[in-house]
Amino acid sequence: MRTLRLADELLLIAYDDDTGRNRATGLELGLAGSLLLELALSERLRVDGRKKVHVVSAASIGDEFADEALARVGADKPRTARSWVNTFSRKLLPRVRERLVGEGVLREEVHKVFGLFPYRYYPLADGRGEGEARARLERAAGNGVAGDARTAALAGLIRATSLERRALPGLSSWEARRVVKGLAEAGWAGEATREAIAATQMAVIAAVTASVAASTAATSGG
């Protein structure tokens, strides 16, 4: 099995293993943020003091989605992390999901609502990758520190998409939020990496908040 990327891990934590339903808030935006974080962790991007994203190296990291994102950032003028999160989120969820189905990590099931309308579910088929991601988070939670940049980045994405309790089901909702926030903010890495993770996490939170507000306004406004 291929080593999973942050986007894969986030989606697997978000999807219920048995029902195959998404339990995240703003998963598409979280997945988009994961691309920026993959590139920052690989020292391909940096975020400046104005939260704008710059290419440091255009070399491929071997992930099709992140490499596409890198090429788009390099071909455009500097934009904020939030702007790129909104841009990359378009149609990213089905692509990540289809990759995991193709690799046998998820399976696709089609059910009919009221016996008429087809609806697709994506329950877990191979839990090794998700299990490894959850084990990293649980070890970090027990130690009180992420210990490595990748786990801290995943914690930041989990916080931004309100998946704390799903990631750490053994804790209460309040305690899970407190622990995940601490893991995402711990000072275990270099300054540039910390800044990139913080900027991306805040960009996803802002984008999710705006999306939820717009949806609520549309529903209530009629």
TrEMBL record:
The keyword Membrane applies. Keywords: Golgi apparatus, Lipid-binding, Membrane. GO terms for molecular function: phosphatidylinositol-4-phosphate binding. One of its GO terms (cellular component) is cytosol. The keyword Membrane applies. Transmembrane segments: none annotated. It is found in: Golgi apparatus membrane. InterPro entries: GPP34-like (IPR008628), GPP34-like_sf (IPR038261). One of its GO terms (biological process) is Golgi vesicle budding. It is a peripheral membrane protein. It holds the Pfam family GPP34. This is Golgi phosphoprotein 3 (GPP34).
